[in-house]
Amino acid sequence: MTLAAMPRWLRSGRVLIGLLILLFVVTCALFAPYLAPNDPNEQNLIATLLPPAWADGGDPAFPLGTDSLGRCVLSQLIYGARLALTVALIASFGAMIIGAVLAHVAGYFGGWVDWLIGRIVDIWLSFPPVILSLILMVGLGTGVQNVILAIVLVDWTRFCRVLRSEVIVVTRRDYVAAARLLGFSHWRTVTREIAPATFPLLITLLSLEMGVAVVVEAILSFVGMSVGADIPAWGQMVADARQNIYQAPWNLICPILAIFITVFGFNVLGDGLRRTLDPRLSQTERG
């Protein structure tokens, strides 16, 4: 396939960079048992706080060293990608579905329906997202499913508020008015005429939300309100590494880099999709 024959969004440098980064993270998550050099939960109290293999005193069996309990840092990073991506994918799709449905209902019907949904969004946004997530986790308890539910209940407002404005703009276009005059049902008008026009923005918001979900999960696991100690999590690694930050700074740097790279990949992908899928931005860049 030639470059010209490829879809326009695949010719974007931002999209390609984001996809390559996320492909690397997804590969680590899917093939963790084959890529991890050790069991991430296996403790070796004789080999605690070992430096990376290339440093003085390092052990080739532990390429990125060990933590205060003698667990392999690289293995924990690889297995931690599983939790991060699971939460990012499921929670983001859940928030997208709720937010997108309410946004299209509010923007299309307007009137008291729009007012009611708008007030619910305003009330929900009056709480800081991270604080609201922590409050929900206190009530729900720890566990992957509760982390996902907390993120969905908090972040659906991101989709609803942004998409609602776009739906209002699209609803006022001539072809939507023509569809109504032709007798299209509300369902058909929204799904056939409005939803395709808002799809580029929806995909962009979804990719950006995945990055947000990774950060929120890391914060929750950092404070011990995400998953149990037997499940590797990047935020939990950061929390454990604080105790030995001066003796083993690599234990803190590695999970922070993993979070940064993953979030960067989602954000670059979202920005690239926004620039290539939104016809208004495409025309601006060409001009």
From TrEMBL:
Membrane topology qualifier: Multi-pass membrane protein
Residue ranges crossing the lipid bilayer per the database entry: 15-36, 83-110, 130-154, 201-228, 248-270
Ranges where the ABC transmembrane type-1 domain occurs: 81-270
Major localization listed first in the record, in broad terms: membrane
Entries under InterPro entries matching the protein: BP-dependent_transpt_permease (IPR050366), MetI-like (IPR000515), MetI-like_sf (IPR035906), OppC_N (IPR025966)
Keyword tRNA processing belongs to the record: no
Organism superkingdom: Bacteria
Keyword vocabulary terms for this entry: Cell membrane, Membrane, Peptide transport, Protein transport, Transmembrane, Transmembrane helix, Transport
Localization: Cell membrane
Family: Belongs to the binding-protein-dependent transport system permease family.
Name of the protein described by the UniProt record: ABC transporter permease
Species annotation: Ollibium composti
Taxonomic placement: Bacteria, Pseudomonadati, Pseudomonadota, Alphaproteobacteria, Hyphomicrobiales
